[in-house]
Amino acid sequence: ERERQRERGKNEADDEKRELVFKEDGQEYAQVLRMLGNGRCEALCIDGNKRLCHIRGKMHKKVWIASGDIILVGLRDYQDDKADVILKYQPDEARLLKAYGELPDNVRLNEGIAGGMDEEDDGAGDDYLEFEDEDIDKI
């Protein structure tokens, strides 16, 4: 019984140290292509299918999802074109998933760049290049 109380008292800030969640049967990793509003987004699943994903009300309030984010979705047997967002991976978790080989190499992790799905990047970038404002002019 004590265990259950501890669960309940879990502090939300604890999220950063949460365990990495891998997909289970009926789930798939996906990358958000665009947000559609109303708690829905279009995502490209790792299996190559685009699906309309629905963000649960509970997550909707707390988790801000943007295009390019890596998410875990639950597939629906009866509607292959729709899925439910189970969780959003933090950027460091997405990198870990890639390191574990859970995400294919052609998935460009989003570091705040939306829609950068082009393939000209030959492993050139560290995923987190920070541009100071004045550097932008030199590019």
From TrEMBL:
Question: Which molecular function term from Gene Ontology is one that the record holds?
Answer: translation initiation factor activity
SUPFAM superfamilies this protein is in? Nucleic acid-binding proteins
User: Which stretches make up the S1-like domain?
Assistant: 16-90
- Which InterPro entries does this chain map to? NA-bd_OB-fold, RNA-binding_domain_S1_IF1, TIF_eIF-1A, TIF_eIF-1A_CS
Q: Which UniProt keywords apply?
A: Initiation factor, Protein biosynthesis
Q: PANTHER family, alphabetically? A: EIF-1A
Would you identify the family this protein belongs to, as annotated? Belongs to the eIF-1A family.
Q: What is this protein called?
A: Eukaryotic translation initiation factor 4C
Q: Which organism is it from?
A: Adiantum capillus-veneris (Maidenhair fern)
